[in-house]
Amino acid sequence: MTDSTLLPVMERFYTIQGEGSYSGYASWFIRLAGCDVGCVWCDVKESWNAEGFPRMDAKALAQEAAQSGSKIVVVTGGEPCLYDLTELCNELHDKGLRVHLETSASSIIRGDFDWICISPKKFKKPIEGQMHKADELKVVVFNKSDFKWAEEYKNKVNPQCRLLLQPEWGKSNEILPQVIDYVKQHPQWQISLQTHKYMQIP
Q1: 163-196: b or e for each residue (b if 16 or more CB lie within 10 Å)?
Q2: Cβ contacts of residue 16 below 8 Å, gap of 6+?
Q3: 72 and 22 in contact (C-beta within 8 Å)?
Q4: Which residues lie closer than 8 Å to 1 by C-beta, 6 or more apart?
Q5: Residue-range domains of the chain with CATH
Q6: Which residue among 42, 64, 114, 181 is least enclosed by CB atoms within 10 Å?
Q7: Is the torsion defined by CA of 164, 165, 166, 168 positive or negative?
Q8: pTM score of the predicted model
Q9: What is the pLDDT of residue 2?
Q10: Rounded distance between C-alpha atoms, residue 37 and residue 7, angstroms
Q11: Rounded Cα gap, residues 38 and 2, in angstroms
């Protein structure tokens, strides 16, 4: 895509951030379409294919976000880093908004973000040299081997990065007790729950 100001947008909505370090904060979400990772447990598989979704101008997206009343904008996907997000970040910052990113870092992160959550995936691993950009490392725990995976990536982030383990929603009854035990034994980690699903909001 040559024009970085035109982005395929699946949806935009105002809600409460349900995951990670900013859980509980009112946030405006911009969900970009297109993903080349393809997690089997993804709950927004309809975002994988960018075809058929409208392409929007960064300036229009920023104007809409500013009108929402939120001070935080979360850019997510899909995999948002398939696109150059520099112009979108600039437009959002011009409106006085904080810009957060949720990514697997399987593509290069382009843009000036106030908070970067990297959630590495086994299906397509992060590009080398991207992990140091993370303010937050969020590992989705689907099975027991994911704890070892999490520790591998803990060693790739900067020392100030927050470390979060998040039980996969569909296996929460089985996985959550394991995550609780693991965090008690490894207290440098915290637990992230998908609280928006408990609240039954987007």
Answers
A1: bbbbbbeeebeebbebbeebbeeeeebeebbbeb
A2: 24, 25, 26, 27, 195, 196, 199, 201
A3: yes
A4: 83, 84
A5: 6-199 (3.20.20.70)
A6: 181
A7: positive
A8: 0.93
A9: 39
A10: 18
A11: 24
